[in-house]
Amino acid sequence: MEKIELLAPAGDYEVFQTAVLAGADAVYLAGKNFGARAFSTNFTIEEIINAVKYAHLRKVKVYVTVNTIVYENEWEDLKAYIGELYHANVDALIVQDLGIIEYISEKYPDFEIHASTQMNIYDKEASLLLKKIGIKRVVLARETSLEQVKEIAKTGIEVEVFAHGALCYCASGNCLMSFAIGKRSGNRGTCAQPCRKKYCLVENNLKISEDCSLLSMRDLNTINYIDQLIEANVASLKIEGRMKSKEYVYAVVKNYRKRIDDYYNNKKNVIDEKVIDELSVAFNRKFTKGYLFNENNNLLTNIQTVNHQGIVIGKVINVVGNSFDVKLSKELLLKDAIRVVGKSDYGFVVNKMLVNHKEVNYAKPNEVVRLTANAKITKDSIVLKTQSAQLQTETVRLLNNPKKYIEINAKLTIKYANKMQLTIFNKQNSVTVETITLEMIAEKPVSLDFIKERFDKFKDTPFYLNKLIIDYDDKCYFSVKDLNEIRKLAINKFTDEVLKYQRVNSKIVLPDSHNFEKEDLTIEIIVNNKDQYNICKELGFNNIYTDYNSDMKNLSRLNYNANEFGLINNLSQINNGTTTSIYFNIVNKKAVSFLNRFNVRTVYLSNELNYEQLKSMLPIYNMNIGVQIYGRYDLMISKHCFVSKIKGASDKNCHKCLNNHYEIIDEYNNHFPVILNPNDLCSLRIVNNKVLNNLNMIEKYISLGINHFMIIFTTETKEEITEVLKKVKFR
Fold this sequence. Notes:
This protein has 19 helices and 37 strands. An eight-stranded parallel β-barrel has the order 1-2-3-4-5-6-7-11, surrounded by six helices. Helix 4 (98-107) packs across helix 15 (589-596), helix 9 packs antiparallel against helix 10 and helix 14 packs parallel to helix 19 (718-726). The longest helix has 19 residues, at 246-264.
């Protein structure tokens, strides 16, 4: 069994170096565009080129996230960028947009692709499809269970799972809420994080919770379960955090590295309190073992706060003016950052502290330390450490004194009337360079020790010299400059030899495309219950889909469960239908072309496209193209039920939600209906607070080549449904 990969994030070059030096096997990062963390610093193409060289010299891989959906007018820039990444020897691309796969299959079929978590891969069916076309790896949805992971791994495709870091409330991060309320698309890397906002929960028009962070997930932490993930044949453990600090990356990579290595070295893994503290200080919103390990529903979210929690290190026992005394339960160092939480919440960096009236740099557990703050501190306040001076020091030390990875040997030949010659070699590589012809007689022979000193200098390289053989006749003259020059030439040549790159074991091959005839103008309707279904049938509409009622012939799963009669919502369902829903995130021609190759006849385009963007990519003559023209669409689909948490259920399937109506209300008094799924009582949908109504745009859409129109009914009454459908001019 191949050793599991530890995959670390990097939001800038310094964090990237930290990840490599801390022990990551691979690092994922993004360029300035087309990455799902647009607000991170990210990398220029020159920095990516340098990062790849830096990593490859240290036997570390580099994956670049090109995991946004791509509008039609961006394709020329995208094509140029992918070409640059290919020639920079980036090891793989992490991709969400199906159009990118289509393009790479045409232009760079040997460019390794990893299917992004935003492709919503959680089962064997989708994994097999991707494996068949040459996708090397799937980054599984965070909602995937360990049992599902094991089954997917059996298909032979590489499986990557998130092991540590932030979680999205919305399944696979496929959230439309940020776009719907603020035109900042999570699928475009500009998510405004509505899941970290405060909401109150309403049941049957009555508030049953005050404003709280209903949708704020705890941070994932699986360090206690590494053995199970390895034994499930997971290929890669992914750490979330491209917007996190270098100290966070250092702490997480270092500790997960040790845990992985201990497993393979048959060491008993006991995660002590110090490790958990270090991970907690680096960043946490409280920890959860996540869906992977079937976490209790109550332990998936932290509704009290969305901020970094740190660790509790003590309690205020006395206040004297601006000074206060803290009885420590854990150590405190000078330059640590702390928060004092009581009647007020105040944070600061500790620049001075006293123990027994003496200034100290370090205070131990059970000691009483006196601190000073420009804030009103109250007795019994809790003291949290939110930033570790020790972590900062260790990270700086790591960057300033990097580990040498590659052992080399050298043979230097210095003989009169011959060229100076240097060979650098190890078990894998060997190079030889020559410089000047040595024609001058030396007045005084240079000592061997002096020569050795010149050759023990490999600053800013991963090389260390194991053995130097010197063949020197003591006759000829040469300078220090000559030694430096030949050493530099040889190292550069050896570096080039080590960096020789060949792409292997990857080739994207797609099925042939189809030429479908255009269908007549078609109205398709999604309903929320049987009463709505009956109304639509009575009014003469037949293309009706629902999530819930199994006695209806046209059954669609808008969440996880596929049905051969339904709309296609993700790749797992692609062999069970011919029409994709609006939730497939299709925004460009190449993505449509990709679906065409898998016998999809009708593609509904994303609601994130405006009219001008639709115009730029249409018509598409060999496909049926659809748009939503009316209704509230899903903003989030989640496997976590906050209703049960608010109502005090201890675990899943509490049935406390049945036969009630729910909505959440944000700080601006926007009301978002919540639809619970009776087939999976612990999943829910949050739908748009506003009703999309483009009924008056039908003729314009038809002129663009659109021939399918979706109407979605959620909370509408019989009267409202009737009014909407009577406005439709064709059936």
